[in-house]
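SAMPLE LOG
Freezer: B-3
Tube label: C17
Construct: single chain, 131 aa
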Amino acid sequence: MSDARSEQGFTLLEVLVALAIAVLSFAVLFRLIAADLDRTRAARDQTEAAALLQSLLVQSALAPMPGITRGAFPNGYAWRVEVAPYTDDGAAADGPVDAMTVAATVSWRDGGLTRSRSLTTLRAVPRAAAR
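STRUCTURE (predicted):
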């Protein structure tokens, strides 16, 4: 004869413990997925900012005039380009070209923070255009 108690199934306590384990597992899994989505979004934002920076540098290379220009892209990124004559005390001043420093910055909002990326380059320009 078998014991009637061993054939009754799960007790309420066993079901509650199993449910608690399942809830904790889902909570950990949810946190991992949320963190992964945050990292993916941040990487996408950085990549988009880098592409916008390269675009700004190419555009500013077409006619580098000294000064600061600002603007915003339709996707929420703001930009700033500063063009200034390159100064180097050891540089020869008798050549046919001068150099211009072009610094581009793209910034965007990330939650409550403002993030930004910057690139700086030198552009050769005819001597008359640099002054």
